[in-house]
Amino acid sequence: MSPYIATQSGAGNTPNNTKTLSTSWMFPYLFVVSFAGLFSIVALRKLMIIKYKLTYPSGTATAYLINCFHTPKGAKLAKKQVGSLFKSFGFSFIFGAIQWLVARDEGCGFGSLHTFGAQAYAKRFYFDFSSTYVGVGMLCPYMVNISLLIGAIVSWAIMWPMIEEKKGDWYSAQLSATSLHGIQGYRVFIAIAMMLGDGLFHFAYMLVVTISSFTERGPPQNDYSDEDDHDKKIRNDYFLKDQIPNWAAVGGYAGIALISIIVVPITFHSLKWYHVLVAYLIAPILAFCKSYGAGLTDWSLASNYGKIAILTFSYWVGLENGGVIAGLASCGLMMSILDTASGLMGDFKTGYLTLTSPRSMFFSQLIGTAMDCVITPLVFWIFNSAYKLGDPEGSYPAPYGLMYRGIALLGVEGFGSLPKHCLRLAIGFFW
């Protein structure tokens, strides 16, 4: 949304297609869009947790971990884990301080070590000894790390240098390296094509899995059967004890939608009240689909739904009427609803297995969401003040900012705005 990112895209850099990032509008925007997901499908918790017995792998794993802590062996293990946590934190903090002391200027020190030589460093192939990235790599599955490594080698070592040799033929040599009509356009739109292809595949796959799961299920059965063990009956009774009235869920969602219809168009002038109304009418259906899919596979498709929202609303509004901002704002609205709805259902699964009151879980989510609406903009403001976010040559290039803006530009401008042969390459990588 920011004008700084808009200048890099080289298109849509008009006042009605940019918005200065400020906490003055972030606070009200987050407060009106972040709570709707909690009310959207809360009435279906009995259906998804007890009747369909969805797994919600992350919620189940969390529940087993919590239950493990309440055993003598688990308590001993927890102490070791906490000790390892503080040791790792201390090492990372001290190493970060050493890096800061050693680095005398930009491009020197541990953060910019020419691991593979000067030419490779110019192509951004070097090791920066970032404890954050090492930690992320330890958390991510090894297949994710391997995929990232292969993608980096194929793109930065092979594809981008080959395309840069076509400068002056495929795209103008006068364009900056950050223009979407130049080399950056190939980077962004090929990546978008791959992400959309992968996302649509998983969307279709989850749709097939969901439909087949519904068709394979027999007629509705009683919550209890003779084969149910004692623990399951206790969990079912406890889970159904603290009911959240359906009228409260429906009324809460309708009230938040009404407030959003008033507030969101004031914050983003390109979004009209009927755009917001359509988004809130569609969101519960998508929230159910996402929550059901997450319950089966633990996959999150919120970003894919968000990309579809960008393309839909940006095309609907149009470039002249601020379609870029409209698409990005609707994406944030949609992803917020879907993520919170799916997260709440996963927490209900955790509460079901740990004998935690569903009503307590719901109100805890309300409190946590309210805190998040305050803390997140403040953290972003501090971070944005300390670093130049979005700088392609800086430490935090924020590539997703330019990528999502590129999707919005694609929605308002169409394929004719792409550089030469970019569409063919994107289609090839899409499949």
TrEMBL record:
Pfam families: OPT. Its main location: membrane. It is a multi-pass membrane protein. The keyword Transmembrane helix applies. The chain crosses the membrane at residues 25-44, 133-158, 188-214, 247-266, 273-293, 313-341, 362-383. It is found in: Membrane. GO terms for cellular component: membrane. GO terms for molecular function: oligopeptide transmembrane transporter activity. Keywords: Membrane, Transmembrane, Transmembrane helix, Transport. NCBIfam families: OPT_sfam. Belongs to the YSL (TC 2.A.67.2) family. This is Putative metal-nicotianamine transporter YSL7-like. The lineage of its organism: Eukaryota, Viridiplantae, Streptophyta, Embryophyta, Tracheophyta.
